[in-house]
Automatic annotation (TrEMBL):
Domain of life: Bacteria
GO cellular component, one term: cytoplasm
Organism: Puia dinghuensis
Gene coding for it: idi
Annotated SUPFAM superfamilies: Nudix
Protein name stated in the entry: Isopentenyl-diphosphate delta-isomerase
Keywords for this protein: Isomerase, Isoprene biosynthesis
Family as reported in the entry's similarity comment: Belongs to the IPP isomerase type 1 family.
CDD domains (alphabetical): NUDIX_IPP_Isomerase
Tagged with keyword Chloroplast: no
Pathway: Isoprenoid biosynthesis; dimethylallyl diphosphate biosynthesis; dimethylallyl diphosphate from isopentenyl diphosphate: step 1/1
Amino acid sequence: MEKMEAHRKAVLHRAFSVFIFNSKGEMLLQQRAGDKYHSPGLWTNACCSHPRPGEDTLAAACRRLREELGFTTSLEKLFDFTYRSEFDNGLTEFEFDHVFVGYYDDEDIHPNAAEVSDYRYCSLEEIKEGLAVHPDNYTSWFHLAFPLVREKMATTRKG
């Protein structure tokens, strides 16, 4: 089914989220463009989207990273989770979300203005504090995914 139809009907569907870190351990955040159909102007992870019909999820994640932020890097799957988030405009994200992580230190980032209005790297502590102090500045799924990514990354580094 087409993405917008799935969001209108609140049907569970595949999605992915990409989290990018630099060598300082900072996470790349993007601010969604102001005219996005939901969550405009909110901060979130590097990129999120949906695979096309028949498209491999990892290939889709790499494609959208390039389309939204203008760069590519190797990505690896970290985990999956399911979430449901309802928006004021009547749309619902009910998604089986494949979470990918990658690393990027180059300053050569070229955001697509139709998707991204700003971007920045932040420490995990800055993000944790921002989510607590200014929760309305972040997307609903980022509130759910960030602690999971943080926990999984800490576990991975220890193991």
